[in-house]
Design goal:
Layout lengths: L1 H28 L3 H6 L5 H10 L6 H13 L13 H36 L4 H15 L2 H15 L12 E3 L2 E3 L4 H34 L2 H8 L4 H30 L2 H6 L5 H10 L3 H29 L11
Antiparallel strand pairs: 1-2
Helix pairs in contact: 1-4, 1-13, 5-6, 5-8, 5-10, 6-8, 7-8, 8-10, 9-10, 10-13, 12-13
C-alpha cells in the first residue's frame, strides 16, 4: 500500500513538472513581457535593465529552474494587465470558484447517486422515465444555454434569485465565503445548479448502468439465495461494488468543475478564477495564464490522489496489495 501511494506521488510530481514546463514555454514564446510592461517607447537601456531584473538574459535551463523554484513558493510574478502579484489575484478569486464548485459537486452527488439507484431498481416507473429524460437534457444542452434559461425563469419571469454577482460575503480567517449568509446562498444557487446539471446527469446515468450490471452478477444471486433483505442486497452489496467507477468519474468531474467553470462564471458574472483566466487570455497576461495552468494541474493531481485513497476504503483488495496498478 505504501509503495502504491509513493508511486502515485511520483507520477503526480512528473505531471506537475511537465505542466510547469508548458507554462514556462508561455513565457518564452507568447509575446514579449518587456514590451508589454514598458511599451514601445522604452529605451534599449530600460529594456535591458528590466530583462535583467526578470532573469530573461539567463540561459533557458536556469530560467526554467528559477521558474519552478518560484512556482513551488506560489510566486508567478506580476500580472501584466493589473500590475499586481498573481498570487494576490488568485487569493482573491480562488475562494469564489472553490465555493461554486463545492456546492455544484454536493448537489450533483447527493442527487445523482440515490436517484441513479432508484432509476436502476424502478426503471419501469414513470418517475424513472422522467428522470432519464431530464438526464438526457442535462448531458445534451450546453452550459451557457442552461444558465440563460435559469436566469430567464428565476430572475426575469420569477424574480426570486439574483442573476449575477456573488452577493454578501464574510471573511473567515482571510478566506471569503458567501455560504454563511442568506444573500450569498441566493446568489450561488443559480450558477451552482447550472454547473451541477451536467454532472448530475452523468452520475445518474453512470450509477444506473453500473447498478444494472452489478445486479446481474453471481454474488447478488447468492445474496438473494441466502435470504438477505433487499436493503442489504441493494445498498450493502450492489451499491458498494457500483461505487468504484463512480468515484473515479466524480473525482475527475470535480476537477473539471474547478478548471472549466469559465462559461458559468461568465454567464453569471461570478468573480472567480474563470473570469480572471478569460481576461488573461484576452490581454495575453502570460503570468496569470501560466499560474492558472499550474494550479489546475495541482488540483487534478490532488483529486486523483484522493480518489486513489478512496479506492482503499471501497475495494478491500487494495488493502492487501491485490488489484493495485
Amino acid at each position: 500500500m505504501l509503495a502504491f501511494l509513493i508511486r502515485r506521488l511520483l507520477q503526480g510530481a512528473v505531471v506537475l513538472l511537465a505542466v510547469a514546463f508548458l507554462a514556462f514555454l508561455l513565457f518564452q514564446h507568447v509575446g514579449d513581457p518587456v514590451t508589454q510592461m514598458l511599451g514601445q517607447e522604452a529605451s534599449p537601456a530600460q529594456r535591458e535593465a528590466l530583462r535583467a531584473d526578470l532573469g530573461l538574459d539567463r540561459p533557458v535551463p536556469v530560467q526554467f529552474a528559477r521558474f519552478v523554484g518560484h512556482a513551488l513558493r506560489g510566486e508567478f510574478g506580476i500580472s501584466l494587465r493589473q500590475a499586481r502579484p498573481v498570487a494576490t489575484l488568485f487569493a482573491e478569486r480562488l475562494p469564489a470558484t472553490l465555493e461554486l464548485a463545492l456546492v455544484a459537486a454536493v448537489l450533483a452527488v447527493l442527487l445523482g447517486v440515490p436517484l441513479g439507484v432508484y432509476v436502476a431498481l424502478r426503471r419501469t416507473t414513470w418517475a424513472a422515465k422522467v428522470l432519464m429524460g431530464v438526464s438526457l437534457l442535462g448531458v445534451s444542452l450546453p452550459t451557457f444555454l442552461i444558465g440563460i434559461l435559469l436566469i430567464l425563469c428565476f430572475s426575469v419571469l420569477l424574480p426570486w434569485l439574483p442573476a449575477f454577482g456573488r452577493g454578501e460575503v464574510v471573511d473567515v480567517g482571510g478566506w471569503t465565503t458567501g455560504l454563511l449568509t442568506a444573500d450569498g446562498w441566493r446568489h450561488v444557487l443559480l450558477p451552482a445548479v447550472t454547473l451541477a446539471l451536467f454532472q448530475f446527469a452523468l452520475i445518474l446515468r453512470l450509477v444506473r448502468a453500473e447498478m444494472l450490471e452489478v445486479m446481474r452478477a453471481d454474488f447478488i444471486r447468492f445474496a438473494r439465495a441466502r435470504g438477505l433483505p433487499d436493503r442489504v442486497v441493494y445498498l450493502g452489496h450492489a451499491l458498494r461494488n457500483t461505487l468504484v467507477p463512480v468515484v473515479t468519474v466524480v473525482g475527475l468531474q470535480l476537477g473539471s468543475l474547478i478548471a472549466f467553470s469559465i462559461v458559468t462564471e461568465t454567464v453569471f458574472q461570478w468573480p472567480g478564477m474563470g473570469q480572471l483566466f478569460i481576461q488573461a487570455v484576452m490581454f495575453a497576461d502570460i503570468p496569470v495564464m501560466a499560474a492558472y495552468l499550474c494550479l489546475m494541474a495541482l488540483v487534478f493531481v490532488l483529486i486523483n490522489a484522493g480518489v486513489d485513497l478512496l479506492y482503499v476504503v471501497i475495494d478491500p483488495r487494495l488493502r492487501t496489495g491485490r488489484g493495485v496498478a
